Structure formats: structure tokens, C-alpha cells
Amino acid sequence: IDNIINSRLENVTGTSTDPFGEDKIARILLIGLDKRVGQENGHCDAIQLVTVDAGKGAVNITAVPRGTYSPLPPGKGTTSSDYYVSNACGLGGLDYGVNQIEKILGVTADYLAIVGFSETLGILRNLRLPTTETLQWLRHRQGYAIGEPQRAHNHSTFLKQMMIKFVPVNMSKLDTALQYIVYKSVKTDLSFAQARKIIDVISAM
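^ that's the sequence the OP posted. Answer follows.
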């Protein structure tokens, strides 16, 4: 994870704290990584593209179900069930997986944010949400008629509700401290100043 974050940071020109481009849009690819003990790479278990349009005052959240078809590097796939985008990360490596996700979405993400199980539990605790129950709901898919697409949609809904509930209209020092704690729980190529700028834009909406 550190390698891909560092390589993306090396490609950044300038030191601007403004995360929005000329189009006033910031695209953040959020990946929930399922990394088991002994695995070199984790599966891309949750994939969400959060598009914040400062010009239009709108946020779009696009889900990519982890069972979406994706090619794999030669020699990596053995059965038909291997050719999922979650395995593009798990078998091909995170850098390869992100590349495949961007091909599926048809856009290149401006920023990358990666979170694992432990980090997710920590964020839920800091937000005073029920940790185990919330994570179980986020991971649940087998009880739905359409399975994984419903779970991916639930992830989008969850992110939307988190923005509505936890992005304050008027910022306080306490809000900034909590945001920094959550920020440090995520591996990202966004600086904290850039993350704060995005939060300010969402708050103004």
C-alpha cells in the first residue's frame, strides 16, 4: 500500500492544497482492502468512487461490485471465478487492481484512499457507531436476492449517510481533531489540508 501511495505522490507536481482541478472536480477512489494473514496482497473488497463537484455543488458515489469481471495478469487465473476485480487486487497486486478498476469506471481517480478491517473498526469506534454490527452489515451479501450488487449499493448508501451525519455545517476545533484521527486511519495520497478542503466544500453543500 505504501509503495503505491508513494509512487502516486511522486507524480504530483506542485504543493497546492487545492484538491480540485480546473474542472472543480475531485475524484477519490475508496478501496476497502480484505487482507488475510499470509497474503501478500489483499482483495479489493469494497470499491467506491466518490466524485465531489465543487462547481455544481454535488457529490456522486459510484459503486463497483467486487464480482465485476476483470482480466488478470498471465498465469494468475485458474478458474472462471478468479476473474473478478477483487482478485485483480488480490492476485495482480494493488497497482494492477486500481488500473483495472479505473478501466471499469472509465475515469482516472485523482486520489486514492485505502482502508482495512482494523482501520474500519477504529473509524467506527471514533464515530461512536456499533463496530461489529456495522461491519457485519457492510460485509453481508448472501441474504440478498442479487447478492454482491446490493452490498455494493449499501456501501454507497453508508458513505452518503456518513457525510450527512458527520460533516458539520459549522466547523469547530473538535471537528478538526476528529477528522484528523479518521484521516490518519486511512492510507491516502491526499494531504490533510486537501482532505479538509474537500470536507469544507461538502459542508457548504
